[in-house]
Amino acid sequence: MSMKPGFDTLRSHAARLQGAHSSSLLAKDPARARDFALRQESLYFNFARQSYDRDALDALLALARSRDMTGAYRRLFDGEKVNITEGRAALHTALRGDHSGAAIAREAYATASAVRLRMGALVAELEASGITDIVSVGIGGSDLGPRLVADALREPAGGRFRVHFLSNVDGAAAQRTLAPLDPARTAAILISKTFGTQETLLNGGILRDWLGGSERLYAVSANPERAAAAFDIAAERVLPMWDWVGGRYSLWSAVGLPIALAIGFDRFEGLLSGASEFDAHVLNSPLESNISVRHALTAVWNRNVLGHAAHGVMTYDQRLALLPAYLQQLVMESLGKSVKLDGSPVEGDTVPVWWGGAGTDVQHSFFQALHQGTGIVPLDFVGTIRNDDPYAENHLALMSNLFAQAEALANGQSSEDPHRAYAGGRPSTLILLDALTPQSLGALIAMYEHSVYAQSVLWGINAFDQFGVELGKQLANGLLPALRGEAEASDPVTKVLLAELKARA
Ligand code: F6P
């Protein structure tokens, strides 16, 4: 079905609102400051500084209805094969809750729950051992989610274990990770859905040799037999995952074992319960109050109607400093597509460049460009109302900066001196967590997962495959013989580069 009619309507609204500052929209409709906000439990989202008005928002919601958004979520939660190019379901929701009466989804929930029991037993076993350090080896979805959540929720001085993450194939990463550790007091978890990922296999070999064998090696994979055989890992130390969970949606599975070791198994279960509560919000809310749908419609308005080519996530909570990096994979590996489900070209732009950083550091880095640059970058600001550190004055300063930046970007400031004028009209969504807890972080991540899915439905693309990562891998494997001097490269520039490398090595 063509997206064109819906987008044409939206563009007519944008023309009607031409250049409307959110500040002028607020002047016309002061109630939007409150009305353009939505809440789910301890999470609050204020969209008042976006540049659509009530009529444009109605048109956005009409677009969502025209794409059967409610039915699309039902199909996702029921375990239908929404990942049509790989003929798979995408049942990350079944990892954390029993939200569907469909047999497939209920069976997935039961299977995941049984593995979660095994996870808990492994955590207890390791907690009773003399192990002090855990090295989690994985990359992409087998790294970014665990790394984010373990860092966000760990105790300031560290918990029962020091958990280290090793992802890059660059040997410097392994060297710097292992140098300060004692192999006798270290266990390693090899996480790889396919167990065919070059980086993880190479780093896994380094860990096995460094540990002096596989006795303290664990593995998580959708290919448990391959994992066990490749590294001689006893079956009881291999936890399964499944093809019906995408790698970048998998932290809720046994991929989250390093999380559970870093923050405790009970708090890991709290993370899942927070996500599950948000799942219920997405399933049961009317579209107009569905936060993920509103977030997705806002993204489509900024991308397809206003043509903005980037989206920033600025986390005014240092514990969420890794959220932008995690979201880069979740969003850009899911939505970085240019053909629709039927293989025809998409009818407009899809994912913008997602990036971000932690406030207030970002104000001393790239915020100049956000305030006075020629491009407009819509932002998500994420803040936490209750701090969990003893520095009250710092928290007041952090929150004052958070609110000030959003206000300044939106309202700007005129000046006789053009060098000191701020155009304003920079849109943002303000996301406030009551506190950073396992539950609130689980809900926040689920919100983004479901916004990504809603955007894929609006664009008519598959959020769950990632064929675009294959060519680079194939070429890299093909260049290894040339790097070893055993063959010639075919690409003329690569050939020159290899000659330079050889001459300088
Ligand atoms: O980036 C490609 C990718 O396949 C991701 O989708 C995935 O999360 C990552 O590589 C790691 O894959 P695996 O978990 O199979 O090692």
UniProtKB/TrEMBL annotation:
Gene symbol of the encoding locus: pgi
Pfam families xref list: PGI
Localization per Swiss-Prot or TrEMBL: Cytoplasm
Protein name: Glucose-6-phosphate isomerase
Gene source species: Pseudoxanthomonas sacheonensis
Highest taxon of the lineage: Bacteria
UniProtKB keywords: Cytoplasm, Gluconeogenesis, Glycolysis, Isomerase
Active-site residues (renumbered): 333 (proton donor), 364, 473
EC code: 5.3.1.9
